[in-house]
């Protein structure tokens, strides 16, 4: 038990020396463990074939959302405005 505590404290000390940030992999795993969305959670939890399928589906639907935002913003900005003083 003391060996585990010593390793944990050494890891904490190393992280303090490294700075306040975590690695991108640690942040991704934390996000995937704590999110309500289906895709990212399954990307890290499933087997290799399902991981690939969920990654492609998540990427596809995220890109569709971005494309829809682009269409929405372009439509909003294309409205003509007339101002008379």
UniProtKB/TrEMBL annotation:
Q: Is this entry keyworded Cytoplasm?
A: no
User: Which Gene Ontology cellular component annotation is one that this UniProt entry carries?
Assistant: membrane
Locations listed in the record:
Membrane
Residues crossing the lipid bilayer are 52-77
Q: Which domain of life is it from?
A: Eukaryota
Identify its membrane topology class: Multi-pass membrane protein
Family indicated by similarity? Belongs to the amiloride-sensitive sodium channel (TC 1.A.6) family.
Q: What is this protein called?
A: Sodium channel non-voltage-gated 1 beta subunit
Query: Organism, per UniProt?
Result: Kogia sima
């Amino acid at each position: 038990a003391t060996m585990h505590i010593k390793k944990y404290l050494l890891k904490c000390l190393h992280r303090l020396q490294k700075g306040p940030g975590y690695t991108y992999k640690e942040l991704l795993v934390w996000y995937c463990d704590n999110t309500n969305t289906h895709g990212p959670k399954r990307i890290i939890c499933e087997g290799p074939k399902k991981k690939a399928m969920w990654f492609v589906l998540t990427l596809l639907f995220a890109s569709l959302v971005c494309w829809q935002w682009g269409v929405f913003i372009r439509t909003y900005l294309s409205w003509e405005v007339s101002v008379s003083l």
